[in-house]
Amino acid sequence: MLIIGIAGGTGCGKTTVVNQILDQLPEGEVGVISQDSYYKDTSHLSYDERIKINFDHPRSIDFELLETHLRELKNGNPIDQPVYSFVKHNRTGDTVKTHPRKVMIVEGILILTNPELREMFDIKIFVHADSDERLIRRLKRDISERGRDLDEVLSRYQNTLKPMHQQFIEPMKEYADIIIPNNKYNTVAVDIVKTIINQRLI
Ligand SMILES: Nc1ncnc2c1ncn2[C@@H]1O[C@H](COP(=O)(O)OP(=O)(O)O)[C@@H](O)[C@H]1O
Ligand SMILES: Nc1ccn([C@@H]2O[C@H](COP(=O)(O)O)[C@@H](O)[C@H]2O)c(=O)n1
């Protein structure tokens, strides 16, 4: 199994890059795990308590479960990937059966901050987009898809997202094998990653 970790700040285009990679690759050969599925269970908290959580700090992620799941997949076993709701700020209780594939992609803002996970990645990719570009994309996406309003996105950006990005995410570029510049759609870089994957699938 080839395990590829794709990190980068919110709105840099990780999900988009993953979808571009999956596009035209043989179906069923490449699997995806999203770090978002592994936000810690917050069922014991009220909604008002949940919205105060710093979701850009590594402690908000259940890295233990993510690592266990990745090891299971590596050992050839399927896992039940939790489904996360950005509207409820909690897991939904549903899971998605995720089967081991020849190539597994793990994507998320904080995945390179965890040394054990880093160790498991054969290829580490960092997707870069400038912070103003990311904020614009985040605003549009969170308002249209994640049930947020302008004030919520901007206050989260100023209070937690920006400082956490500077402290935990940006320094992870140091560990990247490949940095994809993604201020504009970058088909060349995506094609290079696809070529690497195709070589593994032969
Ligand atoms: N290169 C790009 N140029 C313009 N918009 C982009 C680009 N890459 C992604 N987007 C858009 O930005 C938003 C956030 O992208 P997404 O892939 O969800 O980022 P991430 O998973 O890193 O948070 C989406 O609406 C997506 O369509
Ligand atoms: N309940 C939550 C959980 C996380 N977030 C934000 O999601 C961002 C990470 O997801 P991307 O798809 O953008 O990589 C992160 O910056 C968290 O602030 C949230 O808003 N609500």
Automatic annotation (TrEMBL):
Catalytic reaction list: uridine + ATP = UMP + ADP + H(+); cytidine + ATP = CMP + ADP + H(+)
A Pfam family reported for this protein in Swiss-Prot or TrEMBL: PRK
Keyword Cytoplasm assigned: yes
Annotated pathway: Pyrimidine metabolism; CTP biosynthesis via salvage pathway; CTP from cytidine: step 1/3; Pyrimidine metabolism; UMP biosynthesis via salvage pathway; UMP from uridine: step 1/1
Stored Gene3D superfamilies: P-loop containing nucleotide triphosphate hydrolases
The protein's Enzyme Commission number: 2.7.1.48
Enzyme class, broadest EC rank: transferase
GO MF term (any one): uridine kinase activity
Subcellular localization: Cytoplasm
Keyword field: ATP-binding, Cytoplasm, Kinase, Nucleotide-binding, Transferase
Main location: cytoplasm
Domain Phosphoribulokinase/uridine kinase per the UniProt entry, residue ranges: 3-188
Family: Belongs to the uridine kinase family.
NCBIfam families on file: PRK05480.1, udk
Protein name: Uridine kinase
